[in-house]
Amino acid sequence: MAAVRIRRALPLFLTAAGIVLLFGAAVLGHRMTVARGQDIPLVFHHRAHGGFNCVTCHHDFLKPVVTPAVHRTCIACHKATPAVASVIHDQFHAFCVGCHLNQQEQNRRAGPVHECRACHVREAGSPGHGHLH
Amino acid sequence: MFLSLPLLCAYSVFLLSFWRARDDLHLSLPWDVAMIGGFGAFFFLLTLFTFTGRPLPFPFFDGKFFLSLHRWLTALFLGFLAFHIGAIVVTDPQILYDFWPSGTPGMQFGALAAFLAMLTPGLAFRRVWRRLFATAGIFRISHVILASAVLGGSVFHIVTTRVHVVLSWQVWACVSVAAVALVLPATERWLLARVTVRPGWKRRIHTRHLAGMLAGVIFCAATIETAAFLLWRR
């Protein structure tokens, strides 16, 4: 009788456990790898953003640092900071997208909002096809 | 055919609600087409929770009609889902980076929901479920668990990717619709147990072909309506 019950309950248990494991593995894998996962190659048009105050993006612009600026990138520093490493994707996307949306709301020319290839390129080093709307 | 009208009305309300805001996104046409394919898939996923394959009091048709309708709606759901994924991957192949473990959780949950969406109908083939599940009841519970996971993953994907569903009322509407869809099958069963059937009335038999016709009409009308809606919004 017990064997029959187990035989009946096993598929249900496996279904529920499989779903929990699948989604749990995705969350755990994301948390473990987000700080050292490979970056998607990105092109940032610095010149196109020249009209903005430096501290709009470079929040540490006025802080004294030892490392020369050419050896520092935003992503690398954020990845090395545990407090912000886990939200790196959301933070950077929200920062860029939020600013672009604000520009659009003010009927100004603005950068891309959602299209990946407007900022990200397929291979590192290849020219980006970013454009301004 | 009387079912096609309320379904299309529901589809129109669905499109207007979730596509209303943020038409200032300046998304390219391929992106918008891919996104609206995803919205279509989500709509047909919701209809699967309405027409679960169990006979309803309206229309007063036999069980084969409802089972066939459920299968046809599944085919439409998977078709729209395949179109959504295919179109966005072709348009922006960089999106595949999101499926790596370091990618965004919203995209990964969407991918897992899509995987489960393909697995669930696969397990529902009679030959398969009879081998895996001891009784039809256990299969149904397992099917419900898998379908709920697909719905939950899809809602999380829609809400967290923040492409069109971004305003707080849209997010709450999306979550509420999904919550209603989750309890709908149980509510339908509860109502069915209490519905009074007039004596002498019999369910109309040999109606399986009508389900296919209904799905075809809905597919054609939804596609035309979607194209017209997209042209209007752009």
TrEMBL record, chain B:
Record's keyword terms, sorted: Membrane, Transmembrane, Transmembrane helix
Keyword Membrane: yes
Transmembrane segments: 33-51, 72-91, 106-125, 137-159, 165-184, 210-232
Protein name: Ferric oxidoreductase domain-containing protein
